[in-house]
Specification:
Oligomer: single chain
Structural class: alpha+beta
CATH architecture of the largest domain: Beta Barrel
CATH class of the largest domain: Mainly Beta
C-alpha cells in the first residue's frame, strides 16, 4: 500500500531541481577552471548526468581545498544524484573547515532525514532557519522531519501556525503530511483536499493528495492524479498495484450472484497481466512484480482457478515468505481442492506461529475459517476446544462504548452456529438437532438458522420435516442461494425430480463455480447416471442343507439413466449353484423390467426367464412401497417363480409362487424397526408362511465409530414336512446382535470403513428342540465420489438344522456403480 511518507530520495529529486536551476546561475567561476566548461558541466548535471560534475569536484579536491561555495555546490549535486553516502562524506570533511552556505546545509539535512537520523537532521534544519528565517524550503523540511521523528504535537503546532500565517495549498499539503505521519488519514485527506481545491495544478498539493488517497485506500483516484509520473516510476508502480488490489478486494464483496464477482475478478486478472508484461523487463521492478503476483492470487481464487493459485503460491513461497493475507486465500484454495490438512496447517502458521497462543487475537472471520478447516480435516478435538473457547469469551450480550444498554453479541450467535456444525460433523445428530432447533425457534427472523435446522433434519432421514422448515424460511428471502441448494437436496430425497432440476439449474446459473453448487450439481448428475448393481455370496465351508456345499450366488442388474424423470429400464442376470446329496443344483435367471419413482412411491415390474432343474419357465415380479410420512412405510411384492425359492427345491423341480408385505417404522438414523410377513405356495403342494421382526438401536456414537444393537426375530410354518428340501414344520429364531462400524479413512466423499457383527441367540424347531445360534462377521466397505459403493464381508455362523449343528463360512459381497 502506497504510504503518504513518500520516498525521501524522490522528494529530494523534485525539490533540488529548483536549487540546481539556481546553482546554474550562482556557481562561481573558478580561477583554475574555465567558466564555459564549468557551465557546461552544470547544464549536463541538470539534464540528469551528474557524474562528470561530481568527478570534477573530486579532481579539484585532490589538487586543493575547495571553497565554501564549491562545497555547497558539491553537496547539492550529490544529493540531487541520490548519492547520500557521498553527501555525508563531503559534509563530514568540510563542516568544520568552511562556512557552508544554506543551500548546502539544506541538502545535508535532507540526506540525514533520508537516513532517519532525525535529531542530526533537525539540528541542521534549525541552523539554516537561524541564518535564513524566511527560507520556506528549510521550514518545510524542518516540520516534516519533526513529523517523521514522531514529535507529533510540535510538528502539528508548527504546521498549523504556518498555515494560519500564510494560507495556501503548500501549507495545507504540509499539514496533510503531518496528519498522515500520525496515522490520522481522514484528517490528512481533509487537509489535502483543501490544498487540491486551492490550486489543482500545484505539484506539492497534487503529490500530497495522491499519497493521502492511497493511504485511505482510494486507489483509483490516486492513480488518476499521478498522470505526471512516468510508467517506470516506483511510486507509479505502487499506485498501480494499489488500484489493482482494490479491484481484488471488490471481487470479495458479496454480490447478487457469482457471475458479478467473476466479472470483477477477470478485470483484476487482465490488469495484472498487463502490469506484469510491462514490468518484467525492468530490473528495479522485481519487488513490485512479486507483489503483483501475490495479489493476483486473490483474483485466481475468486475465479476458482485454485490449482493455478496454489502453484503460484508455492513458487513464491519457495523464494521468500508470502504475506499472511495471501496465505488465507490459499487456505481457501486448498479447501476447494479438498486438501484440508494443508489448509489447516497454513492457517495455524498464520494464527499460531510460535505456540499454543495466537500471535494476535483472532477476528470472528479468522475463527470460523480455522474452525471449518479443522472440521474438514476431521481434527475434531481441536475444533471442539476452539469452539468452546470462542463461546466462553462471547457472551450473549455485550457492552458497546457510548451505549448505556447491553446489545446482542453477533459473536455469540457465530459460536452457537459453529457448535451446531461441530455436532453435525461428529455425527452427534441428536445434539445437532436440539441445538439447531433452539436457534431456529428463538431466532425466527434469521433465515440461515432455519436452513441449518432443515439440513440437520435431512441428515437424520426426515426430509418432509426439513421441507416444511425450508418453506417457512422461504418467506424471508425466496431466492437465497443456500436456501435453494438445501431445497434441491430435500427434493432429491423426496423423489421430486422436476423440482430438484429447477432448483439446481437456478443455483448453477447464479453460482456456477461455487463449491457448494458444484457438490449439488454432482449429486444431481449422479442421479441421472446409469447404475450397475451386483451382490453375491460365496460359500467357503458349509454343511447347510439350505444352500449346499461350495455354494455360489450372484445377482446383477443394470439400470438405464432416468427416462422422463420417473422411469428407468433395467435388465439383470442371476445365478446360483450348490452341491447337495442328490446332486448339483443350478439356477439361472435373465430378467428385464422397469422402475418407476415419484414422491412417496416406488414400484418395479419385472419379467424373467428362469432356467433350473429340468426346464425353463417365465416368471414375473411386482414390487413397491409407499411412504405415509418420514416415519412410516408400507411395501410388498408378488412373484411368479419366486426368487426366494430354495435352490434345493429348484434342483428337484419344485418351484414356488409367493408374495410378501412389510411395514417399517423409522424414527431417525438411530432407531428403526420393520415387521414382515411372506407367503409361498410350492408346486409340490407345500404352503409356507414366514414372518420376521428386525430393528436397530444405536448404543454408542463417536465421530469415527458407531455401535448398534440389532435384534432379529423370525419364524416359519410349513404345511408339509416330507419334501426334498429343508422344510421344518415350524421353527422360530431369535438372535440379538451387535454391529460396529469404524471409519478407517474419510476425505469428503471418499469413505473407507470396517464392520464387525456378532450375535448369539436361539433356534427352535418343532420335534427337534432348541439350539444355540452364533454369528460373527467382519467386512470392509469403500464409498467413492458418490459413484462407487462396494463391500466385502466374511461371515461365520453355527446353528442347528433338524437337531444337528452345522457350520457355515462364506464371503458376501456387493457393488453399486454409477456410470
Amino acid at each position: 500500500m502506497f504510504s503518504i511518507r513518500r520516498s525521501i530520495k524522490t522528494i529530494n529529486n523534485i525539490r533540488l531541481v529548483g536549487f540546481i536551476c539556481t546553482a546554474a546561475v550562482l556557481f562561481p567561476v573558478q580561477a583554475m577552471a574555465d567558466a564555459e566548461e564549468y557551465d557546461a558541466l552544470v547544464i549536463e548535471a541538470r539534464a540528469g548526468n551528474t557524474k562528470p560534475l561530481l568527478k570534477y569536484f573530486q579532481a579539484q579536491e585532490a589538487q586543493k581545498a575547495l571553497t565554501a561555495e564549491q562545497v555547497a555546490d558539491w553537496l547539492q549535486v550529490s544529493s540531487w544524484a541520490n548519492n547520500d553516502q557521498e553527501t555525508l562524506r563531503v559534509w563530514q570533511r568540510y563542516r568544520g573547515q568552511v562556512d557552508i552556505p544554506a543551500r548546502g546545509q539544506v541538502a545535508v539535512a535532507r540526506v540525514l532525514r533520508n537516513e532517519q537520523k532525525w535529531d542530526q537532521s533537525l539540528t541542521v534544519w534549525e541552523n539554516v532557519l537561524l541564518a535564513e528565517p524566511e527560507n520556506a524550503d528549510a521550514r518545510t523540511g524542518w516540520i516534516m522531519t519533526l513529523a517523521d521523528a514522531r514529535r507529533n504535537e510540535e510538528a502539528l503546532t508548527e504546521a498549523t501556525k504556518w498555515q494560519q500565517q500564510e494560507p495556501g495549498p503548500d501549507r495545507d499539503a504540509l499539514v496533510a503530511y503531518v496528519y498522515q505521519s500520525q496515522g490520522k488519514n481522514w484528517d490528512a485527506l481533509l487537509a489535502a483536499s483543501q490544498a487540491q481545491v486551492g490550486d489543482p495544478q500545484n505539484k506539492s498539493a497534487k503529490s500530497t493528495m495522491v499519497g493521502v488517497l492511497a493511504a485511505n485506500r482510494i486507489s483509483g483516484p490516486a492513480l488518476q492524479l499521478s498522470d505526471n509520473l512516468a510508467a517506470t516510476d516506483p511510486i507509479k508502480r505502487r499506485l498501480e498495484l494499489d488500484a489493482a488490489a482494490q479491484i481484488v478486494r471488490a471481487a470479495y464483496t458479496p454480490t447478487r450472484n457469482e457471475a458479478e464477482r467473476f466479472i470483477v475478478a477477470d478485470r483484476a486478472l487482465e490488469r495484472y497481466d498487463q502490469l506484469l508484461a510491462a514490468w518484467t523487463p525492468l530490473p528495479d521492478a522485481q519487488a513490485d512484480i512479486r507483489r503483483a503476483r501475490t495479489d493476483r492470487i486473490g483474483a485466481l481464487v475468486i475465479r476458482k482457478r485454485n490449482a493455478e493459485a496454489i502453484a503460484e503460491y508455492e513458487a513464491l513461497d519457495a523464494q521468500a515468505p508470502v504475506p499472511s493475507y495471501a496465505k488465507r486465500w490459499i487456505a481457501t484454495a486448498y479447501l476447494n481442492q479438498q486438501q484440508p490438512a494443508k489448509a489447516e496447517a497454513l492457517l495455524m502458521s498464520i494464527y499460531y506461529p510460535t505456540g499454543p497462543l495466537p500471535q494476535t487475537p483472532l477476528s470472528p472471520e479468522d475463527e470460523q475459517e480455522l474452525f471449518f478447516a479443522r472440521i474438514d480435516n476431521e481434527n475434531f478435538e481441536a475444533a471442539k476446544i476452539q469452539v468452546d473457547d470462542y463461546i466462553k469469551k462471547s457472551p450473549y450480550l455485550r457492552r458497546i462504548y457510548g451505549s448505556p444498554t447491553l446489545q446482542p453479541n453477533d459473536n455469540w450467535l457465530s459460536g452457537q452456529m459453529m457448535l451446531s456444525q461441530y455436532y453435525i460433523a461428529t455425527n452427534d445428530l441428536p445434539a445437532a438437532e436440539k441445538q439447531a432447533e433452539h436457534l431456529a425457534r428463538t431466532g425466527s427472523g434469521n433465515q440461515g438458522l432455519r436452513i441449518t435446522y432443515a439440513s440437520v433434519l435431512e441428515a437424520r432421514g426426515l426430509p418432509r420435516k426439513a421441507e416444511v422448515e425450508l418453506k417457512l424460511a422461504e418467506v424471508l428471502e425466496p431466492s437465497n442461494l443456500e436456501l435453494e441448494r438445501q431445497q434441491a437436496y430435500v427434493a432429491l430425497d423426496l423423489q421430486e425430480w422436476k423440482q430438484a432440476d429447477e432448483l439446481t439449474d437456478d443455483v448453477i446459473a447464479r453460482s456456477p463455480d461455487d463449491t457448494s453448487t458444484l457438490r449439488l450439481a454432482r449429486i444431481r448428475d449422479v442421479h441421472k447416471m446409469a447404475e450397475l448393481r451386483i451382490n453375491g455370496y460365496q460359500g467357503i465351508s458349509s454343511d447347510s442343507p439350505v444352500s449346499g456345499k461350495h455354494d455360489f450366488t450372484i445377482n446383477s442388474a443394470i439400470y438405464s439413466p432416468p427416462i422422463n424423470d420417473n422411469w428407468r429400464l433395467f435388465t439383470g442376470f442371476n445365478f446360483a449353484t450348490g452341491e447337495f446329496e442328490e446332486g448339483k443344483g443350478i439356477s439361472r435367471d435373465l430378467a428385464a423390467g422397469a422402475e418407476w419413482t415419484s414422491r412417496d412411491y416406488w414400484a418395479e415390474m419385472e419379467v424373467s426367464g428362469r432356467n433350473y432343474g429340468d426346464g425353463q419357465k417365465i416368471g414375473g415380479r411386482l414390487s413397491g412401497w409407499h411412504d405415509f410420512n418420514d416415519n412410516w412405510r408400507v411395501g410388498g411384492s408378488a412373484e411368479r417363480l419366486s426368487r426366494n425359492t430354495p435352490l434345493r427345491a429348484l434342483r428337484n423341480n419344485v418351484s414356488a409362487n409367493g408374495g410378501d408385505a412389510y411395514i417399517r417404522w423409522y424414527q431417525n438414523e438411530r432407531r428403526e424397526y420393520s415387521l414382515s410377513v411372506a407367503g409361498s405356495h410350492f408346486s409340490d403342494g407345500n404352503d409356507r408362511i414366514e414372518y420376521g421382526l428386525s430393528g436397530k438401536e444405536r448404543l454408542w456414537t463417536k465421530p469415527r465409530f458407531t455401535l448398534d444393537f440389532i435384534p432379529a426375530i423370525s419364524g416359519s410354518v410349513n404345511s408339509k414336512e416330507d419334501v426334498l428340501y429343508y422344510n421344518p414344520k415350524q421353527d422360530f429364531t431369535i438372535v440379538p446382535g451387535l454391529s460396529a462400524e469404524h471409519v478407517l479413512y474419510r476425505l469428503y466423499d471418499t469413505v473407507w470403513t470396517q464392520q464387525l457383527t456378532a450375535g448369539v441367540g436361539s433356534y427352535w424347531q418343532q420335534d427337534h428342540g432348541t439350539g444355540v445360534v452364533t454369528q460373527l462377521g467382519y467386512g470392509q466397505r469403500i464409498q467413492w465420489n458418490h459413484v462407487v459403493d462396494g463391500g466385502l464381508m466374511l461371515t461365520w455362523d453355527k446353528r442347528p438344522y433338524d437337531g444337528k449343528r452345522e457350520r457355515n463360512i462364506a464371503i458376501a459381497f456387493d457393488l453399486n456403480v454409477r456410470f
